[in-house]
Each structure stands twice: as C-alpha cells, then as structure tokens.
Amino acid sequence: MQIFSYQPPSIPWLDIRYIDRDIIIINKPSGLLSNPGIAEYTHDCALTRLQQRFKDAILVHRLDCATSGIMVFARNKKAESSLKTQFQNRQTQKTYIAEVDGILKQQSGVIELAIAADKLNPPKQIVSASGKTAITHYKVLAQKPASCLVELKPVTGRTHQLRVHMLALGHTILGDDFYGEDQVINAAKRLQLHAQTLSFTHPYSGKAMQFSSAHPFSSSLK
C-alpha cells in the first residue's frame, strides 16, 4: 500500500478567481487536498484555507490532490443544494487538459469503460464490467515526439476517472504516481492534469457561468 506524503504548497495560499454572496471560485494548486481527511496532517486543504477567510464556505465537489484547476464552493445551503444537484445530474461541463505518455492513434474519441474500486489496492480504481458507468470525451491538441497534450471532457465524475481511462488507452498521464510506471512518474514533477474550465448555472440568478484557468503545462508542444 502506498504511503501518502502530504506537503501542500503555501504559495499562493489561496488563488480566488471570483466571489459573490453565493459562490466562491478558486484555482486549486497541485498538491493541495480539496477537503480534509481523517488524519490531522490533512487539515490544511482548499476548504479549510477558504474557511479561515470565509466561514460559510461549503465543499461542493472535489479535485484529486495532485490535480490543479478550477473549483466552485457554495456559501449557503441553497447554493450548495443547487450546485450539488447540477453535478449529480450532469448539468455541469468540465474541461481538463492533460499531457499523456505516447502518441494517440486516434486524434479524438469517446472512452466508455466502467470503473470500480480496486479492493486490493485502495484508493486505486480499475476498469471493471461490474463498476459504475464512466464516459470521457478526448481530443489531441498537440504532440511532442513521445507525448501528447489532450483535452478531456468527462461526462461522469468517477474517482480517478481521467487517470484510469487514459491508463486503459495505454497513455498514462505524465507524473501519475498512482497508475504510472517509473518512466511516466519521472517524466514530470507533478501530475500533468489540470481542470481548465467549469461551467454551471448560478444557483440564485440562473445565469450561465463559466470560469477558466489556463493549464500550466509546456507550451513547446508542436
């Protein structure tokens, strides 16, 4: 079983992109948990950092610790209920950018592979016919000799979905120390996965909202 070494980044302490009376949008850095775990050392996370400034901040969804990018938090129960319902009913739209190992044969496609918990290796997930439906749209944006920059649009929101789906395609996300071999892990200083855009309906105004954070990966891809 893997030992989780947690050393959350302190700069910036918080990257707030938008705030009103109902929601808060942040750009979460890689290496910071979305919410605290059971262990005391996991108390420092995106949620608790926000609650130090805004006591009413409420967790709505999560990004993996190693994944960076846009997150939305609610500031009251009505906003929380509305946003969680949108996520559950697949009424939100999410776009991720990843740099993956190897060159994809098909420039775009849809991955439909059910995912289940790997009971022998928690918290890992595996592709399993008995798992929950998981759907991801992908498109190659650019490529290097040995890697590709890929746009990923998940329809569902299973644990580690994008990481497991890219592994299943044979193109593990660079820097993935959960699912990658040594060569893939050592190819990047962090997991090369970023939540670049998030779209949803504002819980009070009903207005369509979209927030973006440019991915931090190499711009030298050709």
From TrEMBL:
Function, as annotated: Responsible for synthesis of pseudouridine from uracil. Dual specificity enzyme that catalyzes the synthesis of pseudouridine from uracil-746 in 23S ribosomal RNA and from uracil-32 in the anticodon stem and loop of transfer RNAs.
The EC number(s) this enzyme carries: 5.4.99.-
Q: Which InterPro entries match?
A: PsdUridine_synth_cat_dom_sf, PsdUridine_synth_RluA-like_CS, PsdUridine_synth_RluC/D, PsdUridine_synth_RsuA/RluA, RluA_PseudoU_synthase
Catalysed reactions, semicolon-separated? uridine(32) in tRNA = pseudouridine(32) in tRNA; uridine(746) in 23S rRNA = pseudouridine(746) in 23S rRNA; a uridine in RNA = a pseudouridine in RNA
Keywords of the record, alphabetical order, are:
Glycosidase, Hydrolase, Isomerase, rRNA processing, tRNA processing
Q: Where is the Pseudouridine synthase RsuA/RluA-like domain?
A: 22-167
- MF-aspect GO terms: 23S rRNA pseudouridine(746) synthase activity; hydrolase activity, acting on glycosyl bonds; RNA binding; tRNA pseudouridine(32) synthase activity
Q: Into which family does the record put it?
A: Belongs to the pseudouridine synthase RluA family.
Instruction: Return the protein name.
Output: Pseudouridine synthase
